[in-house]
Amino acid sequence: MFILVLGSILGLMHLYVWKRTVKDTTSPGRTRILLSAALVLLLVLLIAALVLPRTLGVTHTGWVAWPGYLWFGVVVYLFLLLLAVEPVRLVLWLARRRRRTDPPAAPAVDRRVFLARTTAAAAGVAAVGLVGVGATTALRRPDLLRVPVRLRRLDPAMDGFRIAVVSDIHLGPLRGRAHTERIVSMINATEPDLVAVVGDLVDGTVAELGSAAQPLQDLVSREGTFFVTGNHEYFVEDTAEWLTELERFGMNVLRNESTRIRRGNGGFVLAGVNDPAGESDSAGPDYDRALAGATPDQPTILLAHQPVQVRQVAQRGVDLQLSGHTHGGQMWPFHYAVELAQPALAGLSEVDGTQLYVTRGAGFWGPPVRIGAPPDISVLTLRSDSV
């Protein structure tokens, strides 16, 4: 159903782009036919990039995924740029109507065709340029952010405790083992006390991506690596198989449960909840169960993939929630839509007395493009009110 809806939307977008870049700029004939055929082929390539990994497998579809998803980015921005010009077109059309009661003979080069060609060319150059910059940002080394977070009731013995937070790695047809190795190397270089991987690790099966995820077993921290599911973990054929594989890599999977992290006489409760997408597999979030180990004398830190989950836990006394999911919006201006669904895009904020930290994630989904939302790995340093 998702692919059907998305395919319909993409088809309408391509129809509009065809109207503005082909039909409005050419006369009937060979040129129009060739350009129309090229646009249809690009649409087919994009649909293939979306569908083939589900049928042929992730590891065999990189050849179609890269051009298909790059065109995805280009056509999205081409559509938006052309749409932004529509008010100008309307104003010019109204101005012409006011000036002309009896139109003069058509000039040698029709002004409307000239305007259409100029607009299409400018939008095309701008779209390709934006995707080029965005792809460079998406594929580069993630930013390393260091963020101090002050917690109530944190024992001075825990002051300076560092949590490396990474999310949305999105291993799949476009990102593989080298991507994981770079992330692991960056995290290990920070010498964290604990690593939190807050969902959306994979977009494929264990058979396809197990090798790509394997470097996660090399993560080094004093208290270990903890994982909670994201929505994409429930898009694969067998979620349980992935969770077993991650445990084999030495990761601690928190499935609506908690553990206690101690240092000397101090400590905090670390809890983790499943993503709401797990409800389709009868494995949705159970906040009461996850927070059953919380105590009033020590702070509670919750791992939850989606920032919106903070609304469920703030009333339960959670001090800090660590999340991902948003990609920081990934491609401007779509962050406006994300903001409608989530309480925060990125960074540290507060919701109903609970602090919320959202990482922009280390990968991407769909087009390998990030505009205004560079990837990051975050290292949170806990600070005690008593120090």
Produce the secondary structure layout.
Layout: H1 2-23, H2 30-55, H3 62-99, H4 111-139, E1 143-151, E2 162-166, H5 177-189, E3 194-198, H6 206-213, E4 225-228, H7 239-248, E5 252-253, E6 257-263, E7 266-272, H8 287-290, E8 300-303, H9 310-313, E9 320-323, H10 335-341, E10 347-351, E11 354-358, E12 376-384
Parallel strand pairs: 1-12, 2-3, 3-4, 4-5, 7-8, 8-9, 9-11
Antiparallel strand pairs: 2-12, 6-7, 10-11
Helix pairs in contact: 1-2, 1-3, 2-3, 3-4, 5-6
The amount of beta strand, in percent, is 15-25%
Instruction: Count every helix, treating DSSP H or I runs of 4 or more residues as helices.
Output: 10
* Average residue pLDDT: 93
CATH topology of the largest domain: Purple Acid Phosphatase, chain A, domain 2
CATH architectural designation of the largest domain: 4-Layer Sandwich
CATH class of the largest domain: Alpha Beta
Helix content: 40-55%
Strand order in the sheet with the most strands = 1-12-2-3-4-5
CATH-assigned homologous superfamily of the largest domain: Metallo-dependent phosphatases
Briefly note the structural class of the backbone.
alpha/beta
The first-to-last residue Cα distance is 54 Å
Order of helices and strands: HHHHEEHEHEHEEEHEHEHEEE
Provide the number of structural domains: 2
Tell me, briefly, the overall form: elongated
